Amino acid sequence: MSCQMQVAKIALSVCISHELSKNRVIAAPPKPRTPKQQIKDGHQSEKHRQREASTKAAAEASIVEASSAKAQEKALTMQEVIEKTVPKNTQSVKAHTQLVEACTQLTETHTQLAEARGQLAKAMNDQNCIVMEAEAVIQAWDAELVKAMNDQNHIVMEAKAVIQAQDAELFVKMEAAIQVQDAQLTEAHTRLVNTKEDDDDACTVAEAHGQLAKVTDERNRVVTDAHVQLAKVTDERNRIVVEVHGQFAEVHGQLAKVIDERNCIVAEVHGQLAEAHGQLTKVTDERNRVVADAHVQLTEVCTQLMKVTNERNHIVADAHSQLVEAHGQLAKVQQDKDDATEQLQKNNIKVQFIMQDQIITQNESHQKDAMIRTLRNQYQAKSASYNELKSVANRAIKIKQETSRMGVTN
């Protein structure tokens, strides 16, 4: 703003001088200069040029110094922006890397959990197969046992039927034989009684007693044979009953053995199932713990990432604001440069008109030359400031593009 004020003041003074020169009385043209005067004027003009060159060099040096200081200040500002932006971007990249690592660990944990579930499912299927096979074997044993018991029952029933038939047949035979012997004995006794009544012959009586004794012996023999057969049949029946009871005891022993073996298998299978359920519970608890830890880490990483992203966005917004401000200053400087160029052109026209005027004194000419030099120096300073701001703006644009690229990558 100070440079613009100075340029405006100089331009105003030039315009005032020009307006004042218009109102002056135009003097007669100067007389032609003599060679000696021309030489003197040449010396004076040479001194004037030297003074003008030294003044111009000093002004350029001051302008360059001011421009370099301003450029250093802008460079420091942009360096601060870079120093603030790059660590935050590095932090953001680091947080994103941690997030990717946490997601990778979570994926590995899920993979291990799926493998453990597959192994557990396979173990449970194997246990179920073993249980089903054991149940099939036990059912087969039970079926065989039931069949054996049914066979034994059939055998016992057949033996009882045979014994009952034999007992009935033997009883019928014994009854029939006893009845026949009793009838014969009764007939012999009747005949003996009739013989006694009809005939008192001792021979006849003795014969009758002999027949009676014979019939009695036959009857006793038949009864004895019947008793012997009955005892034989009874012994056979008892032997069959004892054998059947032995077979029953053997079957019951096998049944008890099969039941014990089945109970052992069932207890073992139940133990294996309990162990498998314990492993499942352990794996499930471990999986839940790992998942909870992974979710906590993921939440923490996401929070850090959001924090870093917000800080980076703030820095990018500040850099963008500075860039917009630099663009505004650059446009302003460009406008000032255009205005100064236009004013310089106007002033050059005015100065040329004034220099062509022969009524202006040497001091006024020196003053106008100084003003022209000042305007030129200011124009050069404005040009240098414009170039400097332009380079700063280009650098800010590059920083913004690099920041945007890093933000998209993250």
Task: Give an account of the 3D structure.
The chain has a domain of 186 residues: Orthogonal Bundle (Helix Hairpins). The protein contains four helices and no strands. About 2% of the residues have low confidence. It is an all-alpha fold. The two termini are 42 Å apart. The longest helix has 164 residues.
Summary tags:
single chain; rod-shaped; mainly alpha; about 400 residues; Helix Hairpins; about 95% helix; 4 helices
Q: Can you give the helix content as a percent range?
A: over 70%
| Number of E-state strands | 0
Q: What is the residue-mean pLDDT, rounded to a whole number?
A: 71
CATH architecture annotation of the domain at 114-299: Orthogonal Bundle
Count of alpha/pi helices: 4
Largest sheet: none
Low-confidence stretches: 23-29
Q: Just give the CATH class of the domain at 114-299.
A: Mainly Alpha
Distance between the termini: 42 Å
Strand content: under 5%
- Helix and strand element order: HHHH
Oligomer: single chain
- Give the overall shape: rod-shaped
Radius of gyration: 71 Å
**SS-derived structural category:** mainly alpha
* CATH fold node name of the domain at 114-299: Helix Hairpins
Region (Disordered): 25-58
Biased composition (Basic and acidic residues): 38-54
Coiled coil: 323-350
Keywords: Coiled coil
